[in-house]
Structures are given as structure tokens and as C-alpha cells.
Design goal:
There is one protein chain. By secondary structure, this protein is mostly helical. It folds into 2 domains: 418 residues, Growth Hormone, Chain: A, CATH 1.20.1250; 38 residues, no CATH class. 80% of the residues lie in helices and 0% in strands. It contains 24 helices and no strands. α9 packs antiparallel against α17 and α21 crosses α22. 50% of the residues are buried. Pfam families: MFS_1.
Length: 471
């Protein structure tokens, strides 16, 4: 118990928690608050569902993640370090984008709202790369047993940023503020995250040494060192050509060591199993994504008020997630990553059936509270185990790239499939047979409960191949 307390009282855990808040907050901007704003603006459920496709950006952020491991920002990097300099830049851009959204209206300027939402998604997904890399880098290699604790703090922070700050946005709307004013008011939270970044300690890393060695290896493959002397230029034209060749060699070596080496390292370490790991990551939380994408629309349609949604879904749900995340980290440490994922996956799917029952009985606050209670426990449990699992797979020299690759694959699965969640509900509504089972929402949530099965089968296979690593 004392060891557990020492882990959570480490000041690094506080900063990981606050970074988690910074990571969750943008999902209010282009997620929950935007969903309700779009609904108030008169958009259809199908349109709202497809608007959520802006989250597809989170699925491809691994493409530029290597740059965050390598590229230095003039003035900022020298003063604040690699991780903090990028956070300061990105959080400043996020603040400006939120303010810009506050001066729009989706009822009249849907294109501009969409473009700004994409901008928020790009900045936010890039910020996530840095925050995830910081969370892993801040621990020493021998502290890997603390990964579930860092995952718990990051998860708790994310839900506070998404839930508590999201609840504030919903309350402001319900108390008479128009959505433009709400966005302008909550933009101040982005300034708070900038202040937090200024207080962070930049983690120590051997990243530059490893990257430098990789670059030299690629230079050797592309002609070797001292290439200029080897070319033996005589005339001025020869010297110009030789300079261009050397420049090409060094640029190519930098590109390969920055963009290719991190991905090569991942697939070399795990071989063919890497494909199965990525498929598992893609599919594990798809059912949860379907539920999450349509949950606010569902709550409103069956008769809950915005204040009730804010209280139960945001405040109560987020408070429980903070507590449950810490409990989940303890369970994950005790049972191991794979068994923790297996248990949480089954529980997560089973909880979706509670929402089917809620759809059947209508706006019963008791059932609503129970659904939120169970959903937040299983969501916290699955997320903590999932984040710790992914963190465990990264190479410290390429933290940002490899974690972003795996997280992007997970986001891709959730975004690709869940983007059609509204279409699924509308399609089910058009089917006469669903009335026999309680209506379209009842059937919809039952279907989401089955979506975890393929990933659990893959998890069993992965655990047999790498049992000594994950258990």
C-alpha cells in the first residue's frame, strides 16, 4: 500500500493528470459541445454522425509524429526542451482556434465551422502525440511497473478535461448562454494548460544519441562518410555536383532515420505479430465508440434535459472515471495487461446492454445513473489497460512515433466505423422488425455489445505469442 501511495504521490503523476485534461478538453470543442450545437442548429442525426469524421485526423497523426521526436522549434526548443516547446506552440494554436469557432454559427457557416473543427483536430491530435510521449519519457526505463499508474492518471485527467470541462460548457448553454459565447468562455481553459506546460520538467532522454547513430548508418548505406572526398571533385562544376550529392545523402539519411527507422524498429521487434497487434488495437474499442458517438443524441431523444445530461454523463461520470481509473490500474498490475484487457473487454461490451434497457424503459434517472456507473467503470478499466499495453510496446528512442502509430490505428478503427453510427440508427428506425425488440436504440446498443468479440480472439492469440512480455 505504501508503494502504491508513493507512486501516486509522485509529482510527475500530477503533471500527467493535468496533461490528460489538456488532451481531453479538445474533444469537448469538436465532440460533445459541438454535437449539441449542431443539433440545436437543426442538423440531422446522420449529418451529426458524419460530422464526427473530423476525428479521422487522430487516425493519421502518426504520419507526422516522427517530426515531433526530431524537429526543433526555433527559440522555444532551446529554452523549454523538445516536449515542452511543442506543447506550448500547439496549445497556443488551440486557444486561437477555439476563439475563432466562437465567432461562427453552424446554422449559417457550416463550412467554416467544419474547417475550424478540422484545425482543432489536427492541433489536438498533434498535442496528444507530445503528451503521450512525455508520459512515457518521464519515467525511467526501470520504472515500467508504473505504466499502469501513469495510464490511470492520464485517463483520469482526460475524463476530467472531457467530462468536467464539458459539463461546464453544457451548463453554460442550459443557463441561457448561446453556443458562441460558451466557446469564447471555455477558451480560457487552453490558457490554463499553457501555464501547466511552463511548470513541467523536461524529461531526460538518449533519443538524440540513438537517432544520430541511425542517421550515420543510413549515411553509410548511401555512400559512406566523407563522401565529398570520395567523389574527388576537380573542377568547379564537379564541386557543385559533389556538394549537391552530399546534401542529398545527408537529407535522405535524416529522412530515413526520422520517418522510417521508428516504424522499421516496431515491425522488426514484433515481426508478423505486429499486424495482429495493430488489428487488435483497431477493433478493441469500436463498440464503445459507437455508443459514445450517439449517446448525447440518444439522451436528448428519449427525454433527458441538457442539465441532466451534464450532471449524470459529465460530472458524475467523470468523477467516477477518476476513481475507477486508479482502481483499474491496481487490477491491471495484479492480473497483468492481457488478462486485464480480456476482463475489461467483456465487461465493456456487457455494459452496453444496460443502454439497451435504458432505451426500452425511457428517461428513468435511476437506470441512467446505473448505466453511467457501469459504463464509466468498464471504460476506465479498458482504457487504463489499453494505454498501459500500448505504452509497454514502445521503444524509448521513438516514443512519439510508435505510440502515435498504435494510438492512431485505434482512433482509425473507432472513427472509420463509428462515423456511420448515426446512419445505423436511422437505418434501424426504418426497419419494422426493430419495434418487436424495443425500437432502434435498443437494437443499436445490443449490436455494439457484440463488436468486441473479434478483438478478444486476437488478444488470446497475441498473449500466446508474447506471454512473457505482457503478463
Amino acid at each position: 500500500m505504501n508503494k502504491l501511495l508513493d507512486t501516486y504521490l509522485d509529482k510527475r503523476m500530477l503533471f500527467i493528470f493535468l496533461n490528460g485534461m489538456a488532451s481531453g478538453f479538445p474533444w469537448v470543442i469538436i465532440g460533445s459541445a459541438m454535437t449539441l450545437w449542431l443539433q440545436d442548429a437543426g442538423l440531422t442525426r446522420t449529418a451529426i454522425g458524419f460530422f464526427g469524421s473530423v476525428f479521422a485526423v487522430y487516425s493519421v497523426n502518426w504520419l507526422w509524429a516522427p517530426l515531433l521526436d526530431r524537429v526543433k522549434i526555433p527559440f522555444l526548443t532551446e529554452r523549454f526542451g523538445q516536449r515542452r516547446s511543442w506543447l506550448l506552440l500547439l496549445q497556443s494554436l488551440l486557444f486561437l482556434l477555439i476563439v475563432a469557432i466562437s465567432f461562427t454559427n453552424p446554422a449559417n457557416n457550416l463550412v467554416w465551422v467544419s474547417l475550424l473543427a478540422i484545425g482543432v483536430a489536427v492541433v489536438s491530435s498533434t498535442q496528444d502525440i507530445v503528451i503521450d510521449a512525455y508520459r512515457i519519457d518521464v519515467l525511467d526505463i526501470e520504472e515500467k511497473n508504473k505504466l499502469p499508474a501513469t495510464a490511470a492518471m492520464a485517463t483520469s485527467g482526460w475524463w476530467v478535461g472531457y467530462g468536467f470541462l464539458g459539463a461546464i460548457a453544457l451548463y453554460l448553454s442550459d443557463f441561457g448562454q448561446d453556443w458562441s459565447s460558451v466557446y469564447l468562455i471555455i477558451s480560457v481553459f487552453a490558457l490554463g494548460f499553457i501555464l501547466n506546460t511552463l511548470w513541467l520538467d523536461e524529461p531526460e532522454s538518449q533519443r538524440e544519441v540513438v537517432q544520430g547513430k541511425a542517421q550515420k548508418r543510413y549515411e553509410d548505406l548511401l555512400g559512406g562518410r566523407n563522401l565529398f572526398e570520395k567523389l574527388k571533385p576537380v573542377t568547379l562544376v564537379d564541386r557543385i555536383v559533389a556538394i549537391q550529392i552530399v546534401a542529398w545523402q545527408k537529407t535522405s539519411a535524416w529522412f530515413l532515420s526520422t520517418m522510417v527507422e521508428p516504424l522499421k524498429d516496431f515491425f522488426v521487434r514484433f515481426g508478423k505479430t505486429a499486424i495482429v497487434i495493430l488489428l487488435f488495437i483497431m477493433l478493441f474499442k469500436v463498440g464503445e465508440a459507437f455508443l459514445g458517438r450517439m449517446s448525447l443524441v440518444f439522451y436528448k431523444e428519449i427525454g433527458f434535459t441538457t442539465s441532466e445530461i451534464a450532471t449524470y454523463s459529465k460530472l458524475v461520470g467523470s468523477t467516477l472515471t477518476v476513481i475507477f481509473s486508479i482502481i483499474a490500474s491496481m487490477i491491471t498490475v495484479h492480473y497483468g495487461l492481457v488478462r486485464g484487457l480480456m476482463i475489461s473487454g467483456v465487461a465493456m461490451a456487457s455494459t452496453n446492454l444496460i443502454f439497451s434497457y435504458l432505451a426500452f424503459v425511457g428517461p428513468d434517472t435511476t437506470v441512467f445513473a446505473i448505466a453511467i456507473l457501469l459504463d464509466n467503470f468498464t471504460a476506465a478499466f479498458s482504457t487504463v489497460a489499453f494505454v498501459a499495453f500500448i505504452s509497454h510496446l514502445t521503444n524509448r528512442a521513438y516514443t512519439a512515433t510508435q505510440y502515435a502509430l498504435m494510438a492512431s490505428v485505434g482512433n482509425f478503427g473507432r472513427t472509420l466505423f463509428a462515423g456511420g453510427s448515426g446512419w445505423m440508427v436511422d437505418s434501424l428506425e426504418a426497419q419494422k422488425w426493430v419495434a418487436s425488440f424495443g425500437g432502434e436504440w435498443t437494437v443499436f446498443f445490443a449490436i455494439t455489445a457484440l463488436m468486441v468479440i473479434p478483438s478478444l480472439i486476437m488478444l488470446v492469440w497475441i498473449s500466446k505469442r508474447f506471454k512473457e512480455i505482457f503478463i
